[in-house]
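subagent[fold] <- orchestrator: predict structure for attached chain, return tokens only, no commentary.
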Amino acid sequence: MMFGVPPLGGLFKPDKKPRLKAVLQTNYDMSSIVPTMRHVRGFDVARPLSIGMLVFMMLPLVFLPLLSIFIFGTNKGLASFWSALTAAEAIFALKLSLVTSFWATVFNVVFGLFAAYVLSRYNFWGRNALIVTISLPTAIPTAVAGVALLMLWGPYGMLGRLLRPHGIEVMFTAGAIVLANIFVTFPLAFGVIKPVFDTMSRSLEEASATIGATRWQTFWHVTLPSLRGAIVSGALLTFARAVGEFGSTIMVSGNLAGRTQTAPLYIFAKFNEGQIEAANAIAIVLALFSFLIFSVLFFARDWLDVD
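subagent[fold] -> orchestrator:
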């Protein structure tokens, strides 16, 4: 018998519950004192081998492709790189990507918050089908998403043909890019917020209701602050994904330089024209932007993680 643990038969009698708790607490305290056992005594050869294998596998898959962008983007000097970056068409493409991605992020965060609230708080027929449908854009190829939007909002689409006689053109405009970004990033914010709703304790909401708070007051002052981390994380993921969207936007935007050409489309166009340095200049900006967003998500995870 170790650590004075009594026989099991005496532990689970109704009158021995305080004793059981004391024994469990003692064992927990002892386990916190005893250092963690190592599988290998002395030098662990698996540690450097595992780390080296991980880095080796990531070299051709991640590190070298990203490094090549910086090498080819700056091989003619920083002055040439800056000139390519500050070209009028390049600046317009970057601005258009940021603006359209911002509005798509705003819509999807608001929708994701509302959808997560409804689908977490209420059980109804067709609930699972709605969850699957919201998650579907993550599996649909982006080119298919572009075609679907064209078939709906295009000049000869189901709704586009009704709007065209009134002079309303949706496709091949900045608005079409926003629609494409909304469709492609539709599930991201929802997918981050809903799990938090599912695991959130409702005791505070119930306590708020008992003191006379309305449903809106409870949501604004109790529920929403608890979702801060999920909302910020979902917004950053949505924004990063929308900025880099290519497949659907090339179908619905028209890829018109200085009008509907986003940053990824600008890279594609310049690469086809043989202007590798101009394409890599914008590619470097997008790569650094993505790195910045995921760095915020990683290093600010303690602030974003709200119990």
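orchestrator: received. Logging for downstream: The radius of gyration is 27 Å. The chain has one domain: 76-304.
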